[in-house]
Amino acid sequence: MDLEKYFEEHSGFGVLSTADEDGHVNAAVYARPHFFADGTIGFIMPERLTHSNLQVNGHAAYLFRQEPEADSGGYEGVRLYLKKVAEDEDQERIAKLRRRVYGDERDGRHLVIFSIEKELPLVGAE
């Protein structure tokens, strides 16, 4: 699947899940990923639990549930299993990538870059 095209064409709801070194899990709502020419993806994140977890455990999962079609009777989406490969603190680069700014945000965002280890469909019916 062409993931970049998929995310351009579908709206929905995303959740990024991480775990700390002891396996304690966190899940947080995240927007669509940013796509890079080398095949990696990135998420812009504040200095919170998700970012902290990724400092000690570089594995994450991103679940995206696309908005259902009016007559579909179910839901579709994608699950991405990720491995952190880099982190960028360049606030100018991050500002250029940002799609939205919420409230009174300050500097201190992180661009965390991942390789996609596995891609699976989101399977299920409501």
Can you offer a commentary on this structure?
The protein is α+β, with helices and mostly antiparallel strands. The protein has a single domain, classed as Pnp Oxidase, Chain A, CATH 2.30.110. Helices cover 17% and strands 41% of the residues. The protein contains three helices and seven strands. A seven-stranded antiparallel beta sheet has the order 2-1-5-6-7-4-3. The radius of gyration is 15 Å and the shape is globular. The two termini are 24 Å apart. The mean pLDDT is 89.
CATH superfamily name? Electron Transport, Fmn-binding Protein, Chain A
CATH class: Mainly Beta
Query: What is the end-to-end distance?
Result: 24 Å
Helix/strand-derived category reads alpha+beta
How many strands, which pairing sense, and closed or not: the largest β-sheet? 7 strands, antiparallel
User: Number of DSSP helices?
Assistant: 3
Radius of gyration: 15 Å
| Percentage of residues assigned to helices | 10-25%
List the helices and strands in order.
HEEEEHEEHE
User: How many distinct folded domains?
Assistant: 1
* Residue fraction in strands: 35-45%
pLDDT averaged residue by residue: 89
- Total beta-strand segments: 7
Shape: globular
CATH fold naming: Pnp Oxidase, Chain A
Structure described in brief:
The chain has 126 residues and is an alpha+beta fold.
What topology does this entry show?
Blueprint: H1 3-9, E1 12-19, E2 25-29, E3 34-35, E4 41-45, H2 49-56, E5 59-66, E6 77-88, H3 91-97, E7 110-121
Antiparallel strand pairs: 1-2, 1-5, 3-4, 4-7, 5-6, 6-7
Comma- or semicolon-separated keywords:
seven-stranded antiparallel sheet; Pnp Oxidase, Chain A; 126 residues; 17% helix; 7 strands
